[in-house]
Amino acid sequence: MANYGGQPIFILPEGALRTTGRDAQRQNIMAGRAVAESVRTTLGPRGMDKMLVDDLGDIVITNDGATIVEEMNVEHPAAKMVVEVAKTQDDEVGDGTTTAVVITGELLGAAERLLDKGIHPSVIARGYRMASEKADEILNAIGKDISMDDEKLLREIAITAMTGKGAEISKDMLADLSVKAIRQIAEKENGKITVDLDNVKVEKKGGGSVSSSELIQGIIIDKERVHTGMPKKVSNAKIALLDAAVEIKETETDAKIQITDPDQLQKFVAQEENMLREMVDSIVSSGATVVFCQKGIDDLAQHFLSKKGIFAVRRAKKSDMEKLAKATGASIVTNLKDLESKDLGYAKDVEERKISGDEMIFVSGCKNPKAVSFLVRGGTEHVVDEVERAVNDALGGVAAAIEIGKVVAGGGAPEVELARKLREYADSVGGREQLAIGGFADAVEIIPRTLAESAGMDAIDTLVKLKSEHDKGKTDTGIMVQDAKTGDMWKANVIEPLKIKTQAIKSASEAAIMILRIDDVIASTKKGGMPPMPDGGMPGMM
Predict the structure, then answer these.
(1) Among 8, 38, 251, 491, which residue's Cβ finds the most Cβ atoms within 10 Å?
(2) Are residues 265 and 204 in the same domain?
């Protein structure tokens, strides 16, 4: 509502809520910090789990930051921006979501303290932007080179990513499988290594121990063969991938066929049968022994295929077909008449297996596959889900390390060094931005502080000790959470990809800046909807 010459003018619909100035900033900061605080205790090897129960009573037990904020069903607009930070981190790196969210919350906390001192939000935003750019430069300088051949280092990255998760019991075995999977699908173009994580298909099945998880040099398809007369296993399989139906096409327009005597009907049925037989003959003449069809396979065609001893699967997903092409070297054919032997792929074995009561098809033993499958097992559904999340973190961490080619020590060591260097940088900047950069440095220290708290150590004493070590040039000194002491994280094999840190800082600072620059929140009710009521009930209700 505006007021001109004593006359009130309404510019917003009835029931709309408007918060302005310092109140808007304070509420947004509080909402962002609340999200960060909810995941902070999950950080590190001794991080605790959260149990999330939805309105249907379904339970998720996890300490994965991205899963927690996604399942929380956040309503506040500023809190949703913090959730976006976790999603971005998960999409870009696949790990480090808790770190990104916690730093975002702490940056907002540092900004609030500066606002209380009377510093303008634009000045804080400018200081944060400068600090973020400098942080990227500092982190790149302390990063150490890694290549795809450094199997030992890559394995340690995978183990670090899984430590503290539900998969910790079998982390050595799962780490080995994760490294093998990423090295298998990594591709080199113009001297640059690229890793498409979509080419690692993670399939989860309960009913087995975590140690029975396996990596398939090929693809697992959650389907079954179309006919029981077909072989259950085909060795040295020649695989045809069809994006065409093995059935009689219906006419484009409505058509009516009039048959006046039984002979005509017999000829009509025989013609249909011949057409299906020709389709099957095209498959047989190509030399294919296994067929994956993206569309339908007619019942009669299934019979003909089984008679020829051909293993067939219908209605395979498009994504599975693309992975099969990458794994087996087959070409996806859209017209049956064009199918030739050169279009076929190869797999040592194609087998239908029963896993936890479900039939699944294993296409394994492919020659240098560029798509692989990771079968994750676990005793219960909740265990399998958490192991899958841990495996995804490990895969993301190894992929990020290979792509960027740089790693850093873990245990809060890079954050302590970053804070130290940012304070040096702040002294050289001057002006009020100097205070914002100092606040940024304080915020980054939330990571070692949280790790110290979870290890039962005194956070202040630990930080003082770490700063002292870093001042002496021991930049890899961090917190050995399991032993509740400080030490050289590189020697302790606690290693993380550099991209986790750079992406977390970038996303966190951008989200914090965006939230800080908001000084007016206008929340309108939906058209026809009711305005919110302070007592939570209908007017006149008791």
Answers:
(1) 38
(2) no
